[in-house]
Design a protein that fits this description.
Blueprint (H helix, E strand, L loop, with lengths): L3 H14 L8 E5 L2 H11 L3 E5 L14 H9 L2 E4 L9 H7 L5 E3 L27 H18 L4 H27 L7 E6 L3 H7 L2 E6 L9 H13 L4 E5 L5 H12 L5 E6 L14 H15 L17
Parallel strand pairs: 1-2, 1-3, 3-4, 5-6, 7-8
Protein backbone atom coordinates (compact mmCIF):
# COMPACT_ATOMS: atom_id res chain seq x y z
CA UNK A 1 0.00 0.00 0.00
CA UNK A 2 1.36 3.44 -0.93
CA UNK A 3 2.15 5.73 1.97
CA UNK A 4 0.91 9.29 2.15
CA UNK A 5 4.48 10.64 1.82
CA UNK A 6 5.06 8.55 -1.33
CA UNK A 7 1.72 9.65 -2.78
CA UNK A 8 2.60 13.31 -2.40
CA UNK A 9 6.14 12.75 -3.69
CA UNK A 10 4.90 11.04 -6.83
CA UNK A 11 2.27 13.73 -7.36
CA UNK A 12 4.85 16.51 -7.03
CA UNK A 13 7.24 14.78 -9.44
CA UNK A 14 4.50 14.35 -12.02
CA UNK A 15 3.47 17.99 -11.82
CA UNK A 16 7.07 19.08 -12.43
CA UNK A 17 7.82 16.61 -15.22
CA UNK A 18 4.63 17.00 -17.24
CA UNK A 19 3.13 20.50 -17.01
CA UNK A 20 -0.56 20.40 -17.82
CA UNK A 21 -0.38 23.72 -19.66
CA UNK A 22 1.60 22.00 -22.42
CA UNK A 23 -1.38 19.88 -23.42
CA UNK A 24 -3.65 20.88 -26.30
CA UNK A 25 -6.95 19.93 -24.68
CA UNK A 26 -8.17 20.20 -21.12
CA UNK A 27 -6.96 16.99 -19.50
CA UNK A 28 -9.54 15.55 -17.12
CA UNK A 29 -9.17 12.60 -14.77
CA UNK A 30 -12.43 11.12 -13.49
CA UNK A 31 -12.53 8.40 -10.88
CA UNK A 32 -15.59 6.46 -12.11
CA UNK A 33 -16.93 5.69 -15.55
CA UNK A 34 -20.15 7.58 -14.82
CA UNK A 35 -18.27 10.79 -14.02
CA UNK A 36 -15.99 10.30 -17.03
CA UNK A 37 -19.07 10.00 -19.24
CA UNK A 38 -20.50 13.25 -17.87
CA UNK A 39 -17.14 14.94 -18.51
CA UNK A 40 -17.05 13.72 -22.13
CA UNK A 41 -20.63 14.81 -22.73
CA UNK A 42 -19.99 18.29 -21.37
CA UNK A 43 -16.45 18.77 -22.62
CA UNK A 44 -16.81 17.40 -26.13
CA UNK A 45 -13.76 17.99 -28.33
CA UNK A 46 -12.24 20.46 -25.87
CA UNK A 47 -11.34 17.79 -23.31
CA UNK A 48 -9.37 14.56 -23.05
CA UNK A 49 -10.95 12.41 -20.35
CA UNK A 50 -9.47 9.39 -18.58
CA UNK A 51 -11.39 7.22 -16.11
CA UNK A 52 -9.38 5.55 -13.36
CA UNK A 53 -11.97 2.79 -12.88
CA UNK A 54 -13.24 0.73 -15.78
CA UNK A 55 -16.12 -1.74 -16.23
CA UNK A 56 -16.58 -4.18 -13.38
CA UNK A 57 -14.37 -2.20 -10.98
CA UNK A 58 -15.66 -1.64 -7.46
CA UNK A 59 -14.92 1.97 -6.39
CA UNK A 60 -15.44 1.18 -2.71
CA UNK A 61 -12.37 -1.07 -2.69
CA UNK A 62 -10.29 0.54 -5.45
CA UNK A 63 -6.73 1.47 -4.51
CA UNK A 64 -4.67 3.87 -6.60
CA UNK A 65 -1.58 2.73 -8.48
CA UNK A 66 1.56 4.75 -9.09
CA UNK A 67 0.43 5.42 -12.66
CA UNK A 68 -2.92 6.68 -11.32
CA UNK A 69 -1.10 9.13 -9.08
CA UNK A 70 1.09 10.44 -11.88
CA UNK A 71 -1.86 10.85 -14.28
CA UNK A 72 -4.07 12.45 -11.64
CA UNK A 73 -1.43 14.91 -10.48
CA UNK A 74 -0.74 15.96 -14.07
CA UNK A 75 -4.39 16.59 -15.01
CA UNK A 76 -5.84 20.06 -15.52
CA UNK A 77 -8.95 18.95 -13.65
CA UNK A 78 -9.79 16.00 -11.41
CA UNK A 79 -13.41 14.97 -10.90
CA UNK A 80 -14.46 12.49 -8.24
CA UNK A 81 -17.76 11.48 -6.72
CA UNK A 82 -17.01 12.06 -3.06
CA UNK A 83 -19.47 11.13 -0.31
CA UNK A 84 -16.94 8.44 0.65
CA UNK A 85 -17.48 6.40 -2.52
CA UNK A 86 -13.75 6.35 -3.32
CA UNK A 87 -12.83 5.58 0.27
CA UNK A 88 -9.28 4.42 -0.48
CA UNK A 89 -8.54 7.48 -2.65
CA UNK A 90 -10.09 10.14 -0.44
CA UNK A 91 -7.01 11.20 1.52
CA UNK A 92 -4.89 11.50 -1.63
CA UNK A 93 -7.53 13.54 -3.49
CA UNK A 94 -8.10 15.89 -0.57
CA UNK A 95 -4.35 16.50 -0.35
CA UNK A 96 -4.09 17.03 -4.11
CA UNK A 97 -6.92 19.58 -3.95
CA UNK A 98 -4.57 21.92 -2.10
CA UNK A 99 -2.56 22.45 -5.29
CA UNK A 100 -4.76 21.34 -8.23
CA UNK A 101 -8.41 21.77 -9.33
CA UNK A 102 -10.07 18.74 -7.72
CA UNK A 103 -13.88 18.66 -7.46
CA UNK A 104 -16.09 16.14 -5.61
CA UNK A 105 -19.05 16.52 -7.96
CA UNK A 106 -21.64 14.61 -5.92
CA UNK A 107 -20.89 16.76 -2.89
CA UNK A 108 -22.30 19.78 -4.73
CA UNK A 109 -25.78 18.25 -4.31
CA UNK A 110 -27.76 19.83 -1.48
CA UNK A 111 -27.77 17.62 1.66
CA UNK A 112 -31.57 17.73 1.70
CA UNK A 113 -31.55 15.73 -1.56
CA UNK A 114 -29.16 13.08 -0.24
CA UNK A 115 -29.90 9.87 1.64
CA UNK A 116 -28.14 9.13 4.90
CA UNK A 117 -25.71 6.23 5.23
CA UNK A 118 -26.43 3.42 7.66
CA UNK A 119 -22.83 2.21 7.34
CA UNK A 120 -21.04 5.48 8.16
CA UNK A 121 -22.43 7.90 10.72
CA UNK A 122 -22.57 11.47 9.49
CA UNK A 123 -22.09 10.52 5.84
CA UNK A 124 -24.44 10.12 2.89
CA UNK A 125 -25.16 7.33 0.44
CA UNK A 126 -22.84 8.07 -2.52
CA UNK A 127 -24.81 6.27 -5.28
CA UNK A 128 -26.49 9.42 -6.60
CA UNK A 129 -26.23 8.34 -10.26
CA UNK A 130 -29.13 5.92 -9.77
CA UNK A 131 -31.58 8.82 -10.17
CA UNK A 132 -31.19 10.65 -13.53
CA UNK A 133 -32.80 13.79 -12.14
CA UNK A 134 -30.28 13.88 -9.30
CA UNK A 135 -27.42 13.07 -11.66
CA UNK A 136 -28.27 16.23 -13.57
CA UNK A 137 -26.83 18.14 -10.59
CA UNK A 138 -23.52 16.33 -11.16
CA UNK A 139 -23.59 17.30 -14.84
CA UNK A 140 -24.03 20.93 -13.83
CA UNK A 141 -21.16 20.63 -11.35
CA UNK A 142 -19.01 19.13 -14.10
CA UNK A 143 -19.90 22.02 -16.41
CA UNK A 144 -19.02 24.61 -13.78
CA UNK A 145 -15.72 22.89 -12.95
CA UNK A 146 -14.74 22.88 -16.62
CA UNK A 147 -15.65 26.53 -17.06
CA UNK A 148 -13.49 27.41 -14.06
CA UNK A 149 -10.58 25.39 -15.43
CA UNK A 150 -10.95 26.53 -19.05
CA UNK A 151 -13.02 29.75 -19.30
CA UNK A 152 -12.42 30.01 -23.06
CA UNK A 153 -14.62 26.95 -23.57
CA UNK A 154 -17.52 28.22 -21.47
CA UNK A 155 -20.01 28.57 -24.34
CA UNK A 156 -19.27 25.05 -25.60
CA UNK A 157 -19.51 23.56 -22.11
CA UNK A 158 -22.85 25.28 -21.46
CA UNK A 159 -24.33 24.15 -24.79
CA UNK A 160 -23.14 20.58 -24.38
CA UNK A 161 -24.42 20.40 -20.82
CA UNK A 162 -27.85 21.69 -21.88
CA UNK A 163 -28.08 19.03 -24.59
CA UNK A 164 -27.10 16.26 -22.19
CA UNK A 165 -29.53 17.49 -19.53
CA UNK A 166 -32.33 17.16 -22.10
CA UNK A 167 -31.29 13.54 -22.67
CA UNK A 168 -31.32 12.91 -18.93
CA UNK A 169 -34.83 14.35 -18.73
CA UNK A 170 -36.01 11.97 -21.47
CA UNK A 171 -34.36 9.06 -19.66
CA UNK A 172 -36.10 10.00 -16.41
CA UNK A 173 -39.49 10.03 -18.16
CA UNK A 174 -38.86 6.60 -19.69
CA UNK A 175 -37.72 5.24 -16.33
CA UNK A 176 -40.82 6.52 -14.56
CA UNK A 177 -43.15 5.09 -17.20
CA UNK A 178 -41.51 1.67 -17.43
CA UNK A 179 -41.13 1.16 -13.70
CA UNK A 180 -44.67 2.38 -12.93
CA UNK A 181 -45.93 -0.52 -15.06
CA UNK A 182 -44.65 -3.02 -12.48
CA UNK A 183 -47.42 -4.16 -10.10
CA UNK A 184 -47.07 -2.31 -6.80
CA UNK A 185 -46.66 -5.50 -4.76
CA UNK A 186 -43.76 -6.60 -7.00
CA UNK A 187 -41.70 -3.43 -6.55
CA UNK A 188 -39.07 -5.05 -4.36
CA UNK A 189 -35.48 -4.86 -5.59
CA UNK A 190 -33.02 -7.28 -3.99
CA UNK A 191 -29.39 -6.85 -5.01
CA UNK A 192 -25.88 -7.67 -3.80
CA UNK A 193 -25.31 -4.36 -1.99
CA UNK A 194 -27.17 -1.16 -1.18
CA UNK A 195 -26.46 0.77 -4.38
CA UNK A 196 -30.08 1.42 -5.35
CA UNK A 197 -31.52 3.57 -2.56
CA UNK A 198 -31.81 6.66 -4.78
CA UNK A 199 -33.47 4.50 -7.41
CA UNK A 200 -35.93 3.21 -4.82
CA UNK A 201 -36.73 6.69 -3.54
CA UNK A 202 -37.30 8.01 -7.07
CA UNK A 203 -39.51 5.19 -8.33
CA UNK A 204 -41.26 3.80 -5.27
CA UNK A 205 -39.32 0.57 -4.73
CA UNK A 206 -38.44 -1.24 -1.56
CA UNK A 207 -34.70 -1.78 -1.93
CA UNK A 208 -32.87 -4.55 -0.11
CA UNK A 209 -29.11 -5.01 -0.35
CA UNK A 210 -27.44 -8.09 1.08
CA UNK A 211 -24.39 -6.01 1.96
CA UNK A 212 -24.47 -2.40 3.07
CA UNK A 213 -23.73 0.74 1.06
CA UNK A 214 -20.06 -0.25 0.86
CA UNK A 215 -19.08 -3.61 -0.59
CA UNK A 216 -16.38 -3.66 2.09
CA UNK A 217 -19.07 -4.64 4.61
CA UNK A 218 -19.71 -8.34 5.11
CA UNK A 219 -23.01 -10.21 4.93
CA UNK A 220 -23.26 -12.72 7.77
CA UNK A 221 -25.14 -16.00 7.83
CA UNK A 222 -27.91 -14.40 9.90
CA UNK A 223 -28.44 -11.73 7.23
CA UNK A 224 -28.64 -14.39 4.51
CA UNK A 225 -31.10 -16.42 6.58
CA UNK A 226 -33.32 -13.38 7.19
CA UNK A 227 -33.47 -12.59 3.49
CA UNK A 228 -34.19 -16.21 2.54
CA UNK A 229 -37.16 -16.10 4.92
CA UNK A 230 -38.27 -12.82 3.36
CA UNK A 231 -38.16 -14.29 -0.15
CA UNK A 232 -40.30 -17.24 0.84
CA UNK A 233 -42.75 -15.39 3.09
CA UNK A 234 -43.41 -12.58 0.62
CA UNK A 235 -43.28 -14.79 -2.48
CA UNK A 236 -40.47 -12.80 -4.09
CA UNK A 237 -39.29 -14.69 -7.14
CA UNK A 238 -36.51 -12.58 -8.70
CA UNK A 239 -33.25 -11.14 -7.38
CA UNK A 240 -30.50 -9.30 -9.23
CA UNK A 241 -26.72 -9.62 -9.52
CA UNK A 242 -24.39 -6.66 -10.10
CA UNK A 243 -21.63 -6.32 -12.67
CA UNK A 244 -19.05 -5.03 -10.17
CA UNK A 245 -19.91 -7.22 -7.16
CA UNK A 246 -19.48 -10.96 -6.62
CA UNK A 247 -22.69 -12.97 -7.09
CA UNK A 248 -21.77 -15.32 -4.22
CA UNK A 249 -24.33 -13.91 -1.76
CA UNK A 250 -27.11 -13.73 -4.36
CA UNK A 251 -26.59 -17.39 -5.23
CA UNK A 252 -26.64 -18.25 -1.52
CA UNK A 253 -30.08 -16.60 -1.33
CA UNK A 254 -31.35 -18.63 -4.27
CA UNK A 255 -30.04 -21.87 -2.80
CA UNK A 256 -31.47 -21.04 0.61
CA UNK A 257 -34.90 -20.31 -0.87
CA UNK A 258 -34.78 -23.56 -2.83
CA UNK A 259 -34.17 -25.46 0.42
CA UNK A 260 -37.52 -24.08 1.60
CA UNK A 261 -39.23 -25.14 -1.62
CA UNK A 262 -39.37 -21.58 -2.98
CA UNK A 263 -38.02 -20.97 -6.48
CA UNK A 264 -36.13 -17.72 -7.06
CA UNK A 265 -34.41 -16.75 -10.30
CA UNK A 266 -31.81 -14.15 -11.24
CA UNK A 267 -33.80 -11.36 -12.87
CA UNK A 268 -30.71 -10.04 -14.63
CA UNK A 269 -27.37 -8.35 -14.12
CA UNK A 270 -27.49 -4.68 -13.16
CA UNK A 271 -24.84 -2.00 -13.45
CA UNK A 272 -24.36 -0.58 -9.97
CA UNK A 273 -20.95 1.00 -9.35
CA UNK A 274 -19.60 0.73 -12.90
CA UNK A 275 -20.96 0.99 -16.45
CA UNK A 276 -20.74 -1.49 -19.31
CA UNK A 277 -17.90 -2.04 -21.76
CA UNK A 278 -16.37 1.00 -23.50
CA UNK A 279 -17.74 1.60 -26.98
CA UNK A 280 -21.14 0.08 -26.18
CA UNK A 281 -24.41 1.84 -25.39
CA UNK A 282 -24.30 0.23 -21.94
CA UNK A 283 -20.87 1.80 -21.53
CA UNK A 284 -22.51 5.23 -21.33
CA UNK A 285 -24.50 6.67 -18.45
CA UNK A 286 -27.66 6.79 -20.56
CA UNK A 287 -27.22 3.17 -21.60
CA UNK A 288 -26.35 2.02 -18.09
CA UNK A 289 -29.57 3.39 -16.60
CA UNK A 290 -31.66 2.33 -19.63
CA UNK A 291 -30.32 -1.22 -19.18
CA UNK A 292 -31.10 -1.27 -15.45
CA UNK A 293 -34.60 0.14 -15.82
CA UNK A 294 -35.50 -2.13 -18.72
CA UNK A 295 -34.08 -5.22 -17.01
CA UNK A 296 -35.89 -4.55 -13.73
CA UNK A 297 -39.20 -3.70 -15.40
CA UNK A 298 -39.23 -6.83 -17.54
CA UNK A 299 -38.10 -9.13 -14.71
CA UNK A 300 -40.70 -7.90 -12.22
CA UNK A 301 -43.76 -8.00 -14.44
CA UNK A 302 -43.69 -4.54 -15.99
CA UNK A 303 -43.74 -3.39 -19.59
CA UNK A 304 -40.58 -2.24 -21.35
CA UNK A 305 -39.21 -2.82 -24.86
CA UNK A 306 -36.61 -5.59 -24.96
CA UNK A 307 -33.92 -3.27 -26.32
CA UNK A 308 -34.78 -0.32 -24.14
CA UNK A 309 -35.69 3.31 -24.57
CA UNK A 310 -34.11 3.93 -27.99
CA UNK A 311 -33.79 0.31 -29.19
CA UNK A 312 -30.06 0.35 -28.50
CA UNK A 313 -29.53 -2.22 -25.73
CA UNK A 314 -27.57 -5.34 -26.64
CA UNK A 315 -29.63 -8.32 -27.65
CA UNK A 316 -29.92 -10.95 -24.89
Amino acid sequence: MLTRRLLLSLAASAALALPAAAQDRLSVIATTGMIADAARQVGGDLVAVTALMGPGVDPHAYRQTRSDIVATADADLVLWNGLYLEAQLEEFLLDLAQTRPVVAVAETIAPAQLIGSEDYEGRFDPHVWMNPNLWSRVVLATRDAMIAAHPEGADVFRANAAAHLAQLSDLAVYSQTALASIPAEARVLITAHDAFNYFGAAYGFEVVGIQGISTESEAGLQRIAELVEMLATRDIRAVFVESSVSDRNIRALIEGAASLGHEVVIGGELFSDAMGAPGTYEGTYLGMIDHNVTTIARALGGQAPARGRINALAMK
